[in-house]
Structures are given as C-alpha cells and as structure tokens.
Amino acid sequence: MFGKNSVGRLTAAVFGVLATAASAVHADQDVLNRLDVAERQGMLTQRMVKSACFAARGIGADLHLDYLAEAHDQFETSLLALREGSGMLQLLPETKPSLLMAQRRVMDAWPEMDRPIKAIIRDRTTSTETILELQPISLAIKAIAEDAAQRTAMAYSDDASGASFTQNMTVDIAARQRTLTQNMVKQACLMGISDDLSTLTADLAEAINLFDLSLNALQNGLPDAGVMAPPTDEIAKGLSLVKTEWTALKPAFQAAVEGDVPEAERLIVMDHAAEKMLEIMDEVVSLYSGI
User: Fold this and answer.
1) Which of 31, 151, 176, 272 is the most core-located residue (most Cβ within 10 A)?
2) How far is Cα of residue 39 from the mean position of the Cα atoms in its chain?
3) Averaged pLDDT score across all residues of the chain
C-alpha cells in the first residue's frame, strides 16, 4: 500500500518496470488499491499545507518540513501510478477514458501548488503569507482529486473488475477520513495566522461533523449511502480504536470552533493525536482492500 514512508520520485523508466509487475495484480484488488491511492491524493494536499503551516509558525519546523517533502513525493508518485500502473502500489494501468480525463484534471491543477511547495522544500523555510496563498489552491486541488476518486469508485462498481458498489463506496468513505484528520489540524494551525477566522471555524465545524457522520456510518453501516457495516472483527476493532482517539481529540477542535485558538503546545498534541488516527485509518483502509 501507499505507506507513510517516502517512496521518492520515480522515473518513467522505473514505472515501466513496475507497470509490468502490476500485470499480476488481480482486478478487484487493483480497484480497491486504486481508490486508496486516489483518495490519498486529497489527504496529501491537506497534509502539505498543514506541515508548511507548522513550519511557518516555527512549530517542530524541521520535522514538518520533512513531512512536507514526504507528502510531496507521494503525491507526485501517485499522479503517474494511477495512469500508468505501479507494481509497488499494486496498480494496473488505467484504461477507462473518463478516469484518465479525471486524472488529467488533477495533473493540470497540480503545478500551481507544486511550485511553491518545491520552493519551501528547497529553501527549508517559508512565510505565513505563502501558507495563506496555498490554502485555497490546496482546497481546489483536493476537490478535483476527490472528484476523480469518486468517479473511480462509480466507474469500477459492479463491473468486470469484481468489486461491488458497496465495497467501493465504503473504501472511499474510510479513505476520506484520513483527509479529515489532516484538514482539521491544518484549519487549527491556520487560525493562528489568518484574519479570516469565520471561514476557518465554519470549515472546521463542517469537518468535525463529517468525521462524526462518516465514522458512525463505517461503524454501523449506512446501506442507503452504500456503506457496509464492518465486514470483519479486525476492521471493527480498528474503527473502535479510531473512535476512542476521536473522542479524546474532538473537544480540542470544538474549543477552536468556539473561539479558543490553539497555541503551539496544544497544536502539537492535536497533531500527534491526528497522526495516530491517520495511522489507524491507513490500516483500516488496507484491511478493507484485503477482504
């Protein structure tokens, strides 16, 4: 799977070799891996801005600059892998024209974010002004990437790939929870440097609500939305762990929504908890992909 450790920039030649290896991937496994990687792109846009915000504010700057470079590499790797296939990520080359077009939209939007992110990585420093400029760009690319992921879930549902609509939608929702963990911490960090607190608090409140709704759907099932109840005890246990972490973390985000802007020490605690949730959700998504 597309793990947290950096996979680096892979050349087209390397991807050619990996695409050959990908031919051994079963079609149904490919679809679920494809959804995982496609949805991860949205998460990575938010992770990059979150990490850059921490660095700009001098909160664990070196660590978060490393996170930024790692997320940037993962995003760039995924752009080519989703189109041309990857043995490392267990992806077959994409063949559906509608999805190639959706992925092209992500690729076309990416340079506007890529350029300033590369500059931050190169210079190992950034400014709050740059972060505030990156915020709307990242949200636009996130929306395009999530649209491509949702189109992927629909396009591969109940076709010859062998993956069902319910399975695809469940993986899609589970994967989006990872994005929310990064988005919420990013919003909390931006509150310390932005004058537009009303927008940030509204967005954070919406993210909190979405996390609650999606976690409840994953734990209990939501057939009308195509979300299955946990199909294995291991997945149920993972979701229970997420619930435990979220119950402890949620009050800090709610306090931020109510006007208690978190300072550096509290942001560090919030980010640590969100990283733990991200790690658990990575495992849960991997488990869904393996059923």
Assistant:
1) 31
2) 6
3) 90
Judge whether 71 and 120 are in contact, CB under 8 Å.
no
Q: Which two tokens stand for residue 21?
A: 């290896």
Count of CA atoms in the C-beta half-sphere (13 A) of 221: 8
> HSE on the CB side for 283, CA within 13 Å?
14
pLDDT tens profile 32-51: 899 999 999 999 999 999 99
Q: Quote the CA–CA distance of 221 and 229 in Å, as a whole number.
A: 4
* 253-282: burial string, b at 16+ Cβ within 10 Å, e else: beebbeeebbeeeebeebbebbbbbbbbbb
Sequence-distant (6+) residues with CB within 8 A of 142 are 42, 45, 46, 179
- Please tell me the distance from the alpha carbon of residue 50 to that of residue 90, in angstroms, as a whole number: 28
- Which two tokens mark 28? 């149904």
75-105 pLDDT per residue, tens: 999 999 999 999 999 899 999 999 999 999 9
Q: What is the CA radius of gyration of the chain?
A: 18
176, 288 contact by CB (below 8 A): no
Identify residue 58 by its one-letter amino acid code: G
Tell me: the pLDDT tens digits for 144-184?
999 999 999 999 986 655 568 898 999 999 999 999 999 99
Query: C-alpha angle with apex 47: 275 to 153, nearest 5 degrees?
Result: 95
Residue 161 has a pLDDT of 58
- Those residues whose C-beta lies under 8 Å from the C-beta of residue 211, and which sit 6 or more positions away, are 177, 180, 181, 184, 246
pLDDT in tens, 59-77: 999 999 999 999 999 999 9
Q: Is the pTM above the cut of 0.85?
A: yes
Amino acid (1-letter code) at residue 150: Q
* Domain map (residue ranges) of the chain: 12-289
Length of the chain: 291
Q: Under DSSP, is residue 195 helix (H, G, I), strand (E, B) or coil? A: coil
